[in-house]
Design a protein that fits this description.
six-stranded antiparallel barrel; 23 strands; 10 helices; 21% helix; six-stranded antiparallel β-barrel
Amino acid sequence: MAASRRTLLSSSLVLLGCLTVLPGMTECQAAAPSSPQSETVAVSAPAPREIAPDTGAHATLTGLAAAPVQPHATPEVKAPSPAARLEAEQNVIDVFRAAAPATVFVTQKRLVRDYSMRALEVPAGSGTGFVWDTQGHIVTNYHVVDAGRARGTYSVTLYSQKTYDAQLLGGDPNKDIAVLKLINCDEPLTPIRVLPQGGPLEVGQTAIAIGNPFGLDHTLTTGVVSAIGREVQGYGGVTIRDMIQTDASINPGNSGGPLLDSGAHLIGMNTMIFSKTGSSAGIGFAVPVATVRRVVPQIIDKGRVEHPGLGIEPLPDEYAARVGVKGVVITRTAPGGPAAKAGIRGLSQDRTGEILLGDIIVGINEHKVKNYDDLYNALDRYKVGDEVEVKLVREGAPASVRLNLIDLP
């Protein structure tokens, strides 16, 4: 009985060993012990055979199966030549090398008090900027440096990783542009190369953004100019005209950074995105270089931007909309201003105290005006001193006057 058990156990071990041998091996038959039970439990190894290329599980495990042949595959497409691919890649590398030294990291700081009432300076916001000239002027978005009620201080970290204090020279919230000036900067600066006036800008051309998204300095993203001439409401509450739309990734921290073409020219300043999550959704907007080129020298020279105006005080749009008025209702005119001299009328009251409408602006030259946003952007097309025709509705009838624009404070 014990011998029989030993024979069964021995046969079981041999059978288990047979399962691990390679196909074609016949050792199991030779190794099986000769006993009455061996005829019933012996396992014959399969005869040697080729493994078909279209595979079973055994072929997959052994790695011997070839890739299956697909008789109806998609047509083969010729890949671009290595020279073409490398040329495009090298261009992006060259643009980064050229423009990265002109790209900076801007930090806004504010004074706060801790639990023991000690004054501490803490970061209150950050963004990107770029070097405008060798005198230390830094251009960024107005919303990056806007300190709100508590005026802040600023620091700028250059490509060399050195950080300098900076002062705010001024800005224009309606264009979302501000200029900082470095303090005690002791190293040479590399200004950004600006696209010449009238330079080409077309949908589909390469767009390269450099910035500091989420505090990660000097990050490059690429895309194309998706559209030009967009009108998007900006930080100042009015529409910024001729915005550039791009699919180059723009995230929090990219604001104020340069948008570049394949020649490393500044074509815009990255400003905002359309996104439900707050991160890039492939729809970013940049203030066009033409606006930057016009506004920045004024801020450097005067600390502010000229605003061509008529010398009027408009009624807020929501009040005009309540009474169904399309256009800009004039509340009053500035004494001695061009509107007052031209005879433009504001609101008035009759003897009973009822408020009477005065003139309503409905156009500036050929530009229609339906609200204050339209009026602002119509006047923004002209310079201080230009003569314009102001089209009005006066007591229900059309009227017009001509006047010269003044610089509004």
